[in-house]
From TrEMBL:
<keyword id="KW-0548">Nucleotidyltransferase</keyword>
<protein>
    <recommendedName>
        <fullName>UDP-N-acetylglucosamine diphosphorylase</fullName>
        <ecNumber>2.7.7.23</ecNumber>
    </recommendedName>
</protein>
<keyword id="KW-0012">Acyltransferase</keyword>
<dbReference type="Pfam" id="PF00483">
    <property type="entry name" value="NTP_transferase"/>
</dbReference>
<dbReference type="InterPro" id="IPR005835">
    <property type="entry name" value="NTP_transferase_dom"/>
</dbReference>
<dbReference type="InterPro" id="IPR050065">
    <property type="entry name" value="GlmU-like"/>
</dbReference>
<feature type="domain" description="Nucleotidyl transferase">
    <location>
        <begin position="10"/>
        <end position="223"/>
    </location>
</feature>
<keyword id="KW-0808">Transferase</keyword>
<dbReference type="InterPro" id="IPR029044">
    <property type="entry name" value="Nucleotide-diphossugar_trans"/>
</dbReference>
<dbReference type="GO" id="GO:0003977">
    <property type="term" value="F:UDP-N-acetylglucosamine diphosphorylase activity"/>
</dbReference>
<dbReference type="GO" id="GO:0016746">
    <property type="term" value="F:acyltransferase activity"/>
</dbReference>
Amino acid sequence: MSINKNLAIVIMAAGKGTRMKSDLPKVLAPLCGKPMLEYALSSARALDPKKIIVVVGHGRDMVKEQFSDHDISFATQEPQLGTAHAVAQATGYLEGFDGDVVILSGDVPLIKPETIKRMLETHKNSNAAITVLTLKLDDAASYGRVIRQGDTITAIVEAKDATPEQLEVKEINSGIYVFKNSFLLPSLKRVDNSNAQGEYYLTDLVNMAFDEGLVVNCVLAEDAKEALGINTADDLENIERIMKTTS
């Protein structure tokens, strides 16, 4: 398979994983015999991108050492100030790149390359600035809510910033995106942290794109399990069970 010169992938992998009850960086937690990050990397490699950038932070030297034999670049996020701040650390590798950027999370290991390919196809066909992978959950808990006017996505609101009405929304953000790099780079510079968590949210770019009259598209995950994230030791056990029953 030839390299896709119009595709770059950024994997966010800087989290400490305080609730994992482990001294290891979160993305090095063993999952079915491999470090957790290996799964997102495997999906990224299957797309043959021009470049893969892993944003590291907590335990970054351990992560770099573990993956030193891989053809990837590393960017450092220190301190960790949110998802937009994480992606902003990778912009040095994206300057002058005229293509699409896929954003993955190192703690979302079940995402399939086929799903990302579906997102890229939708993104290209609709000439979107952003394409978001969404899913529908009866119990959306702490996930960001996808806000629409009709079929149009107007915003993604983090749970801690959502109104009671918005918290009733069942369509949620997976945290997996495709961006036009020509929109991503300048927009990251405009994100502020005036929200409940005092963080720089990548989701703010959805509001920006809508305000600018740009296309924001979505792909609904066919299997909600693909977007499950790992934040606790219980999450890790749950996903390990899923992997063992589907392998």
